[in-house]
């Protein structure tokens, strides 16, 4: 690829970085992507999940059907970087590299335009709302997706702390199952001089939070890995004559598999039920930002590994899943496929740090790796 052409994809990535949009609000991001990829002549371009975009290459009903996904949403984080492409939106920035993921997929679109498919179909999905865990579900539930029916699905994520361009993958769980549990404690307010005339949930909240610690297994290499992180709590008001009558505890939970997440959630609800007996305090629970574990199919893992070796890219087989959640897990729960990582640089700031930025040198090799995965099935 010429330096001029390479620069156009870097410029595109940096343009997305300047104008980030948070989950579910990627209206201008969608239109920027749509305009940029139009010259790469997809057979069909479809707006999906409201703010996402689906490109189709190939129209044959026979042959393989592959879906490759990139996420496009930003985070509600104020950027501290001062480079020329810094975010122009107050309090919002691309601190997970989704701008880079979108640029990789755009480059793959240009490669597919140069080499039309002779059989089957390839779908390139620019997916919104990954950070909230809602985007994958919105795509899968969109009627526009009903006819896609992929045979295999692939996605990547850039990885700070790994050498640039190193491909990282593993069979089985690649990212953790993650969800947040919200517990509401509904008691009764009273005068703080007469707390016995009300129902103050403070001690029940404290007992529950402390009891939850007994379920933690911090060893990331264990099949029974469990992380429970208190992320938010509220109780009463700053009115010192009133005994509180309402409170909330929010916990973020992480396990290696979605099945273990179900068990952990049941254990926590059982603890709540036991502790609340006889207190008179009403308990209401709910979950939010649910991420299913990415389950890498063994055949798809081998395909990623072989493609990396074929291209001469460094390859690292990870021994335990990453602890962060990724809603591509909903795809790998339904279809054979794999998510893999690509190193963003050993000295790269961590994901979700306010000084993070995507490494533009990854755009070309990552797109070539996706193309190598396709070549195996479409030659």
TrEMBL record:
The keyword Transcription does not apply. InterPro entries: Amidohydrolase (IPR017439), Bact_exopeptidase_dim_dom (IPR036264), Peptidase_M20 (IPR002933). Keywords: Hydrolase. Pfam families: Peptidase_M20. This is Amidohydrolase. It comes from Larkinella insperata. The lineage of its organism: Bacteria, Pseudomonadati, Bacteroidota, Cytophagia, Cytophagales.
